Amino acid sequence: MNKLSEEAITSFLQIVPTAKRDELMSNHTSVKIGGPARLYVVAPSNAELLRIIGEAARLNIPFVVFGGGSNLLVADDGYEGVVIQAADRSMRIEGERVIAASGAPTGVVARAAAEAGLEGFEWGIGVPGTIGGATYGNAGCFGGEMKDVVSAVETYDPAHGSRRTFSNADCRFGYRDSRFKHDPYILLETTLLLRPGNRETALTRMTEVMEKRKASQPQGSFSAGCLFKNYEFQDGSALDILKRHGDGIPETFLTQKRIPAGWLIDRLGLKGTSIGQAQISPVHGNFFVNRGGARAQDVLALSSFVKMKVRDELGILLEDEVQLIGW
Ligand code: EPU
Question: What's the DSSP call for residue 170?
């Protein structure tokens, strides 16, 4: 990436005085990894977010927007541009609808919905990061997915300088995918449409979700969530090599046409493997943890090693789930 000129940096800092120079992204990612953002700024409102983006574009400074930093791997060399944290946390409930700005933490939105007696988003309680990030990646867990609850997404279209609202169908949600991963819209607000229900039932379900998460996923360690997507297949012949590899494949995986990456990694006995301070979690094969001072390069090397092993031994190509900045 081309180095930003001193002139561009100074001009930006004059117009956006809350911006910082050379801010380490390891301070802002859940995995505590990431080199310096040449410029870094928190946008506390969507109006401010749009102003900052406008100024960056005017000064020809590349920019990237992120939410909670929970699914991010930022390069050790950082990002030569402005990294903007979308931090508008505003939220309101209108009947069965919860309208949340992108920076609202997913867990806070889930709890507010349950407290208001709305059901259908209890699973959101343990999802790290923000609603904007969850919509962007069609986050999901324990049977729920954003695509089942989103009714509309308000965005900013930088190419036309205007706002654009997408319906659920227009979001083109897929497994851990949406059109926002492919088209450069800036997510401003997500509207969830939930079911009127019972507050106590919703809160109880939420506690169950938290318990399940505690039982199966690493707690209290620095991680970026699941590193790989689970492997989706259409045709059983894709599993020929896997089928020859010892004991059987659970029936549920075959009916769902999805093989969990964590299960594949576990099968190869790779849990606990480390490169530098990056480690495949001993608790769950699809979580990588930072044992203290890991570099992004270590995570990438470990991820390549895992992909190679899974490809060579089980005939399956794993795809990254985590988002990359600065590579
Ligand atoms: N498994 C193993 N060993 C492991 C890990 C998993 O055998 O080390 C087995 C489990 O026993 C289970 C199966 O694999 O039979 C699936 O595991 P789990 O229920 O933990 O779910 P997952 O498919 O690994 C997905 C999402 C998670 C989400 C959980 C819970 C992906 C890539 N991951 O994980 O989402 O929290 O379901 O619903 O889709 C994320 O996307 O970052 C994420 C954490």
Answer: G
pLDDT at 2: 85
Residue closest via CA to ligand 1's atom 16 equals 260
> Residue 143 CA: which ligand 1 atom is closest?
38
List residues bridging with 73 in a β-sheet.
324
What's the confidence (pLDDT) of residue 245? 84
Q: Give 73 Cα–ligand 1 centroid separation in angstroms.
A: 20
Q: How confident is the model at residue 192, as a pLDDT? A: 98
Which residues of the chain carry a pLDDT beneath 70?
none
Domains parsed from the chain with CATH numbers: 6-86 (3.30.43.10), 91-201 (3.30.465.10), 218-325 (3.90.78.10)
- Calculate the dihedral angle through the C-alpha atoms of 238, 243, 245, 248, rounding to the nearest 10 degrees: 140
What's the gap in Å between 280 CA and the centre of ligand 1? Answer: 14
Which residues have C-beta within 8 Å of that of residue 265, sequence separation ≥ 6? 271, 280, 285, 286, 306, 310
CA distance 48 to 44: 7
Residue among 237, 322, 46, 316 at smallest CA distance from 302: 322
Closest CA to 206 of 197, 295, 221: 197
CA–CA gap between residue 161 and residue 135 (Å, rounded): 22
Task: Give 213's Cβ-side CA count (13 Å radius).
Answer: 21
Instruction: Check if 88 has its Cβ closer than 6 Å to any atom of ligand 1.
Output: no
